[in-house]
Amino acid sequence: MPVRRMRNEGFTLVELLVVLAILGLLVGLAVPQLFKYFSRAKEDAAGVQIEAIAAGLDLFLLDVGRYPTDQEGLRALVAQPTALARWNGPYLSRTSLLTDPWGRPYVYHLTGRANAAYDLFTRGADGSATRAPESLRAATP
Q: Does the global pTM surpass 0.85?
């Protein structure tokens, strides 16, 4: 009977280390790009939500004749404030639109300025911005 020789099949430790090093380099290059992409996606979502809220505020103005007060806030777009007979809402489809993609409520203030009836913005990812970038803020003339 002929003797069969067994071949050692598998990878050497050096080959495994080379593959792991290559994977580590790929992950090191790809992960920062993914974080940039996700950050940009949240900013874009905030911009879309601000536009929807601004449209709801305009509908509120048409029905009631004024924008919500600072005390009523953006909740006036989803729930009728007391003593408002001409309210014909809700003006937003979901209450979740009142929260930005970072989990914070949008900031709304009546300004009383001639060039803007209200300020509506998000504080962004860090939560400390006093004013949002123009791309994330709506001001109605």
A: no
